[in-house]
Design goal:
Elements: H1 2-15, H2 29-41, H3 44-53, E1 65-66, E2 71-72, H4 79-92, E3 96-101, E4 105-106, E5 111-114, H5 128-143, E6 149-153, H6 158-167, E7 179-183, E8 186-188, E9 190-191, E10 206-208, H7 214-220, H8 223-229, E11 234-239, H9 250-259, E12 263-269, E13 279-283, E14 286-290, H10 297-301, E15 313-322, H11 323-331, E16 337-341, E17 345-346, E18 352-353, E19 360-364, E20 378-381, H12 384-387, H13 402-412
Parallel strand pairs: 2-20, 3-6, 3-11, 6-7, 12-20
Antiparallel strand pairs: 1-13, 4-5, 8-10, 9-19, 11-15, 12-15, 13-14, 16-19, 17-18
Helix pairs in contact: 4-9, 7-11
Length: 416
């Protein structure tokens, strides 16, 4: 251990992060080992690069942003059945798997547990996880298959999530047969001086690397390999907080198959030109999602000859990928975006500091940044009230909260 400790000190000195061992002697033997192992796995050069990027001003890029073509699910007319039948055939052949991104906690909802365990207030008191599993099982029955379910957790909530599933008998699924858990990667949080934060437990304070880490996590954890062994060709990836998510959609699959694209995404039309959502577009001729902060007022309000918004297709995190596309996207790390957050930490005297304003940088990748790696993709507009009821905020926010999600869910399923 002494030799490992000295080697660790030497690494930390090289990168100016010696403070990570400040409280080493006060840790239990188990946490001492954990800390040394953590330090061993940190890519300090990446952390340094990411911190340096916080000091650079955003470059004014000359990207050419243009509208993207889309199909409206309810204006396909005669083609609807054709696409649906194509998709149904693939689903019946067991070619579809579902992935749920569930690495977050329900903190913003006042729920001190994984967000997927949250009860949105239905009479059934079903959790988000159970609502999603109900839908998956129901769809599977239609096609005589069990759709394999892959759930991405985080180091923070993996144990609690798996215990929750075990307690509920895996909602009828079978662990490691058609239900799989895997953990997304994390990156250290750093303060405004570039020093890595020490958490309350005396270990490195880390944060999940954003939904863009999904590709690498699927590949590194052997999930894509497992999918291929099961005969899966297509993977639907969605978030745990959308209680109306339709993970099994034969029309979307049929379009992807017919158009020979490796990515097909769902969109809902923006509620109004100023709605704060990312929208589908083409960036320098390649599919992309542009953040609302990047859109000028002129672009936001521009309409086509039918009176539709030119940039009106909101990205709702409902995306279908071929397994090969996921593997390709998992090979190359995506760019990281910087978020300035409040993060509690231990100071040099070992005292817990709980800031009341942002004090640290978190780095995360966005799933849609990988879209530029494909030449073409399909975008299918669906109805918001049928497929998008996210639970992101507390009821006091009034939007995308348990109350709005509950109302949409009850209306869609005709519940009193």
């Amino acid at each position: 251990m002494n030799q490992k400790l000295e080697e660790t000190r030497s690494i930390l000195k090289k990168y100016g992060q010696e403070h990570l061992l400040n409280h080493y002697d006060a840790l239990s033997e188990e946490n001492q080992k954990k800390l040394l192992n953590q330090i061993e796995t940190v890519d300090f050069e990446l952390v340094e690069t990411l911190y340096n990027s916080t000091k650079k001003e955003e470059k004014n890029t000359e990207d050419k942003i243009t509208p993207i073509d889309y199909l409206d699910k309810y204006k396909l007319n005669g083609q609807y059945k054709y696409y649906e039948n194509l998709g149904k055939k693939a689903i019946k052949e067991g070619k579809l798997a579902a992935v749920t991104m569930a690495g977050g906690q329900g903190t913003r909802l006042g729920h001190n547990a994984p967000k997927g365990t949250y009860d949105i207030g239905l009479d059934s008191h079903k959790s988000l996880f159970e609502l999603l599993s109900d839908n998956l099982k129901e769809e599977g029955k239609k096609y005589g298959v069990t759709v394999p379910w892959f759930i991405m957790t985080s180091k923070e909530n993996n144990k609690t999530t798996q215990e929750f599933f075990e307690k509920h008998k895996y909602f009828g699924y079978q662990k490691n047969k058609n239900l799989f858990f895997f953990i997304q990667s994390e990156l250290p949080m750093v303060d405004t001086e570039g020093k890595i934060l020490i958490g309350e437990d005396g270990l490195i304070k880390q944060a999940a690397d954003g939904h863009g880490g999904i590709y690498e996590a699927l590949v590194k954890n052997g999930m894509t390999k497992k999918m291929k062994e099961m005969g899966v060709k297509w993977v639907f990836i969605g978030g745990v907080d959308n209680c109306l998510v339709k993970m099994v959609d034969p029309v979307l699959m049929g379009i992807a198959i017919d158009k020979s694209v490796t990515v097909a995404c769902k969109s809902v039309v923006k509620a109004n030109p100023k709605e704060k959502v990312g929208v589908f577009c083409k960036r320098n001729g390649k599919p992309n999602v542009i953040e609302y902060s990047e859109i000028t007022d002129e672009m936001a309000e521009a309409i086509d000859e039918n009176g539709e918004l030119l940039y009106g297709e909101s990205h709702i995190l409902c995306n279908l990928f071929s397994v090969e596309a996921i593997e390709r996207m998992g090979e190359t790390p995506l760019p990281y975006h910087i978020a300035y957050k409040k993060a509690s930490y231990l100071d040099k005297d070992g005292k817990l500091v709980v800031p009341d304003s942002p004090n640290a940088y978190k780095f995360e990748a966005f799933l849609f940044d990988a879209f530029g790696a494909v030449d073409e993709m399909a975008v299918l507009r669906v109805k918001r009230e049928e497929e998008f009821a996210p639970v992101k905020n507390a009821d006091s926010a009034g939007v995308d909260c348990p109350k709005t999600a509950r109302e949409l869910y009850k209306k869609f399923y005709h519940l009193n």
